[in-house]
Amino acid sequence: MVVRPLPSRRPPAPRPPDPTAYDRRRAWLILVMVVVFMMINYADKSVLGLAAVPLMDELGIDESTYGLISSSFYVLFSVSGLVVGLLSARWSTRTMLLVMAALWAVAQLPALVATVPALVVGRLMLGAAEGPAASMSMHTLYGWFPPGRRGMPSALQIGGAALGTAVAAPVLTWFIVHLGWRSAFVALALTSAAWCLAWYAVGKDGPYAGAAGEAAPERDASRPAARTPAPLLSRLLLSGTVVGSVLSAFGSHWALAISSAWLPVYLQTQLDLAASTASVALSAVSVLSLLLLLTVPALVDRRKRRGRAGPAADGLAQGAAVLVSGAALALLPFAEQRAAQLVLVAVAFAAHAVAIPLHYVTTAAVVPATRRGAVFGVVAATGTLPGMFVPYLTGRLVGGAASEATGYSIAFLLSAAVMAVCGTVAMLAIRPDRDARALGG
Known about the structure:
mainly alpha; about 70% helix; Growth Hormone, Chain: A
C-alpha cells in the first residue's frame, strides 16, 4: 500500500498593504513638521516689523521707505505661489518644502549689509520663497489626511502661523534689544537651516497626494470604471465657493499685512509701549488668534457632522471672522482708553485668522484632487495680494497725513471698509455642497 502524504495547508498569501491606508502616527509627525514650518514662516514675516523702530532710526528712513521695504516682500510672493501651485502636480511636496526652507535661510543674510537695497533684495527673495509655503504645506498635509480628517490639521497648520508670531515676538525682541536687530535675522537663518535637516530625514509625500488617494465610492467590479475628466481650471476658479473663499482670504490678509508691517510700530509710537511690552501684546494677539483657530473650525465641523449646520455654515464662519476684525479696526481710531484700544487691537488682528484655514477647507471640498494643487496656488496668490501694496499704502497714509495718528485712523477705516465688502460677499457666495455636486469635488 502506497501512503500518500497529506497535502500541506499553506497559509493564505498576505494581502498587499493598502497604499492609501491612513497612517495616523506618520501623518501627525508630518503635521508637527508642517506646524514648525509655518511657525518659521511667520517669524520670518514678523521680524522686519519687530525691528522696524531701531532699523528706521539707524538707517534714517521715513515711513514711506519702510513701507516700501515691507511691501517688497510681496512683489514675488503671489507670483511664485501661483507658478509653484500650477506646477505642483509635477513636483514632490517633500522637495518643494525643503527648497523653500533652504531659501528662507539664505534670504535673511542680505539684512546684515544694513542698506535699503540689501533689505529690499532680502525681502524679495524671502517673499518668492514663502509665496507657495501656506498652500503647498496644506497640500502636503492633505496628502497624509483623508478628506474626513482635514479640519483640525488645517486649523493647526494655520495655527502654526499664530504660534510662530506668539513665540517669535518675545524671542526676537530679546535678540533685537540685547544683541542688535541684525541678530534676529541670523537666528532665523539658523532656525530655517535646522528645519531643513529635520525635514530631509522625516519628510515624505503622503498616500492621499493625488486622485488615487482620495476616498471614492464603491463600484460594481463587473463594470469598467468610468473616468470623469476634471473640470476646467477656469470653471473651478469661478465657482461661488472659490470666489467667496478668495475674498475672505483677501480681507484676512489685508489685516495681516498691516499687522506684520505696522502693528509693532503702532504699539510703540502711538500707544507708547516699550519694545518688550509691545512684544507681549503681539504675543497676546497671536494667542487669541490661535485659540480661535482651534475652536471655531472644530465647532463648525462638529455642527456639520451632527446635521445642525446649514448649507451656508462655512461661508458664515469665514465672512463673520473678516467682518468682526473690520468692525474692530473701524472702532479703534475712536477709542480713548488704553484698555479699550488694546482689546480692539486684539480682536482686529486675531479674529480674521479664522478665515484662512476655512478657505482652504471649503476650496478643497469643491475641487478634485488632481486640480487641488493648482487651485490652491491660484487661491493663495490672489488671496495674499494685499501684502503687495497695503504696507506701502499704510506708510504713505501715515507719513503724508497731518499727524501720524490721523494717518493710522485713515488706514484703519479704509481697511475696515475693504474687509466689510470681502466678508459680506464670502457669506453670500460660499456654498460647498452646491458647488461640489456641480464640480465633482
